[in-house]
Design brief:
Order of helices and strands: HHEHEEHEEHEE
Number of domains: 2
Number of helices: 5
Radius of gyration: 18 Å
CATH architecture of the largest domain: 2-Layer Sandwich
CATH class of the largest domain: Alpha Beta
CATH superfamily of the largest domain: Histidine kinase-like ATPase, C-terminal domain
Number of strands: 7
Strand order of the largest sheet: 2-4-5-7-6
Length: 232
């Protein structure tokens, strides 16, 4: 009976999450279009309200996407579709989902040797977007977020996302890739989140034959790195 109820719960969450994403995407698209409209460029209060709308819609969209991924992961139904990916476009797509509602600056670089890679485009974009969202969430407005893609010493593809934020206490780094785990200190207590993003990132990265880890220094910033296997 408990297994049946759990299955019904997962199915319900999956349906709700899926149905949320379409209207949320429309809200985000409409908000971004309005933010580009010349008629409101000299209307700071309207722009501020639009930023809030896009920001909150993005948060809900990310939560819906994460919830859908979790229900599929827990039921063993998360499928991967590997194809050749344009890495620069993947990074641009991930950044564009965050930058309109952020006051941060974004920089990225992609090594020519990894301009095209093989992987699941949707899920890798979700990983990069989750990491960028965390970087924005845990760093002050006006900070810089940097994304780099290169080859490591073992010839694997190396992604890194860096911020200039509060950092992570050393004793908490090891548990942050567990489900429902979040940074817990005085600075982070007002920041909302379910603690699901990094766990999903780990699952996706490991499905690509890679690993993910975090390097951080308190009050200076955090870098999350992950590798994926290079296909030849």
């Amino acid at each position: 009976k408990l297994m049946e109820l759990d299955s019904m719960k997962s199915e319900f969450l999956g349906i709700v999450s899926h149905d949320f994403r379409s209207p949320l995407s429309s809200i985000i698209l409409a908000g971004k279009s309005l933010l580009k409209n010349e008629a409101i460029q000299d209307q700071p209060r309207i722009k501020e309200y639009l930023h809030i709308i896009v920001d909150q819609a993005n948060r809900l969209n990310q939560l819906a996407e994460d919830t859908l991924s979790i229900t599929k992961l827990e039921s063993g139904q998360l499928s991967y579709y590997f194809k050749i990916i344009n890495v620069e476009r993947l990074i641009q797509d991930a950044v564009s989902m965050v930058k309109f509602s952020s006051r941060h600056t974004f920089e990225y670089s992609v090594h020519p040797d990894v301009a095209f890679i093989k992987g699941d485009q949707t899920k890798l974009r979700q990983v990069v977007q989750n990491l960028i969202s965390n970087a924005v969430k845990y760093s002050p407005k006006g900070g810089k977020v940097t994304v780099n893609v290169s080859l490591d010493e073992s010839d694997q593809i190396l992604f890194s996302v860096s911020d200039q934020g509060m950092g992570v206490p050393p004793d908490q780094i090891g548990r942050l890739f567990q489900k429902f785990s979040r940074v817990d200190n005085e600075q982070s207590r007002g920041i909302k989140g379910a603690g699901l993003g990094l766990w999903i990132c780990r699952e996706v990265v490991e499905a690509h034959g890679g690993k993910i880890w975090l390097e951080s220094e308190l009050n200076k910033g955090t870098t999350v790195k992950f590798t994926i296997r290079r296909s030849r």
